[in-house]
Design brief:
3 helices, globular, alpha+beta, Nuclear Transport Factor 2, Chain: A
């Protein structure tokens, strides 16, 4: 078990929950499975669509497979609600497959953190909407979303 902490730590305030969500978005936009997996407990429990990774090692493998399929991935997360050690998030991300078909994936996540700020549970529901490349809304260079880029609420998503 890791002794690392990943601030902000629970119990969350609105400010710390918003920061936790942005840190998660930044990590996922790196598309680096090692970096992303380090914010989860060694025994984390996930539900992601029909996949149920268990533990940090399975999460890392899941993410490696995900970003081989979901190319030019760009994600925006937004705080929906929080209480004590739990955060609810809504998100959207855009990506294309290896045939050039574009998608916008919409979803909700429920997160539960341990006292060290590591995520011990992640439950995600996600739907994929085929879009035309001309309908894309997320155009920043790959990596972290610029601070001045519109949020999900700003984009009416």
């Amino acid at each position: 078990m890791t002794t690392d902490t990943k601030p902000p730590l629970p119990p969350f305030t609105e400010e710390s929950a918003i920061k936790k969500v942005r840190l998660a978005e930044d990590a996922w936009n790196s598309r680096d499975p090692e970096r992303v997996s380090q914010v989860y407990t060694e025994d984390t429990i996930w539900r992601n669509r029909a996949d149920f990774p268990r533990g940090r090692k399975e999460v890392k493998g899941f993410l490696q497979s995900k970003w081989v399929k979901e190319l030019d991935y760009r994600l925006i997360k937004e705080l929906w609600a929080f209480e004590n050690n739990r955060i609810a998030v809504r998100f959207a991300y855009e990506w294309h497959d290896d045939s050039g078909n574009w998608f916008r994936s919409y979803g909700n996540e429920n997160w539960e953190f341990n006292s060290d700020g590591l995520m011990q549970r992640r439950f995600a529901c996600i739907n994929d909407l085929p879009i035309k490349e001309s309908e894309r809304l997320f155009h920043w260079p790959l990596g972290r979303r610029p601070d001045n880029h519109p949020s999900l609420s700003d984009l009416n998503l």
